[in-house]
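Z., the sequence and structure:
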Amino acid sequence: MARLTTLSKLLITMLIVGVLAFLIISLTRGGVLDSLLPKEKEKTDLPDGIMTGNGDNPNGNNGISPKNTNGSGKNSDVVKIGVVTWGGYAAGQYFNEGFLANKNSRFYKDYGFEVEFKVLDDFDASRNAWKADEVHLLWATVDAFPTESAGLSEFEPQIVFQADWSRGGDAVVARRGINSVDDLRGKKIAVAPMTPSHTFLLWLMDAGDLKYSEVEIVEVPNAIDAATAFKAGRVDAAVVWSPDDESCVRDVAGAKVLENTRTASNIIADVFFAKKEYINNNKEKLEKLFEGWMKGAAELNGSEANKKKAAKILAEGLNIPEGDALGAMNNVRLCTYGDNVNFFNLEGGYKGVTGEVLYSKMSTVYNSLNFAPDNVPNWRLVNYPGLVKSTKLSGAQHAAEGAKTFTAPTTKAKTAPALSTKQVRINYRTGEFQLDENAKYIIDKEFTDIAKMFANARIRIEGNTDNVGSVSSNKALSLKRAQSVADYLSDEYKMPQNRFVIVGNGPDNPVADNGTAKGKAKNRRTEFKLIRD
């Protein structure tokens, strides 16, 4: 029998392979092969707008992901909110029964949509996530927003509601020997620029007549690094977050909290902002989000049991101990519906601190320090009060926070050490103590905002004169002048009279030579001193 040669075998093998390849291609194109092989589970649009599938799901929601999270936000089933490790967002997280989107959420049960909180502690990463529509609402503080609003203008950011006021969450710690703002003169201070910490420091310096050029600012990336620099002895003072203030005092011998936002109670306002396009396409959903959030705030403000429940939620979501979570909530004022009405000044004539006051003031301050550009958008362009306007919540639990109640000042308050001293020259006619319109303008310009920002501090108003006339008559006159200033602040801005400590020094505390006209003018002054209650 004849044997095939090696070449013949090779040619026959190639022919067989070619025929098989041709058959496979033909069957595939005709769909025959697909019908013979096992099918992969198809992805299916479900009635509630979600999609399921076998692939890996980056959201970790058992194969469930939002149907649409593009910039328009149309048909997006989950409202995604970017937050940081902070206690001021507890009302929303409590109402949501957690950080993840879930069917037990009261947002879902009461309003029919889900909410997810994403912890984004890195500032730049959080802004990039918002730009990329990975989150729809993002945290900010209205005081620092002027430093970034111009850079976000292509996305038309709109502040939609206020979540909290910092009430102890931010603090200035100082080494031994620094007991007042004036003691910071010439000292090194660690602070994260263009952050709430920076804002707090700037207001504190203004209250103490301390210029930016009179201290040495050590810039650090964040408040945690500021605490590290302070503990290492590289700076004399630092602006830090709670609970780092406690650890700084504990770890550095003789250190103290010079001031915190329990006293400086209306400086750091946490808000949430969204893209204008997203708001326009999701108004009804956002209105319900705000309403639910405000209900959560009211429940937490009125119940320690609810706060403990919220602490468990925060502890899990932020990966911190429950005790720290509870402390974080106690270091803020969780803002109510009424607080938001005041924040946006929706009823007109509100005399307290509004979002516009903070934003506009800090736009000017940060611009003067070259931390904000000349083209910072006007407040009118960056706020959207529509969610608050469309919501109606009544009852004491939803009312705005009232002013602090001060007891009548004691005699000791007249000589108690002052945290800061602000000198203001108010011109009176000789022998008179009444304020004219120019004097009122000077008070408004130089001190009223400080009094509002440090709303929980007492104010000692000290009248001073030159040495012309008798000491007794000058003391009596300076006392009347100090009282006239307190009366104006009480009548015009509803500040409680018990908040003021009235002192008439007469000529006893000169700051310049009474032998010259220039010196006499400097000595005729009113001093505003913040003192701890």
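The mean pLDDT is 88. The first strand starts at residue 44 and ends at 45.

Let me know what you think.
H.
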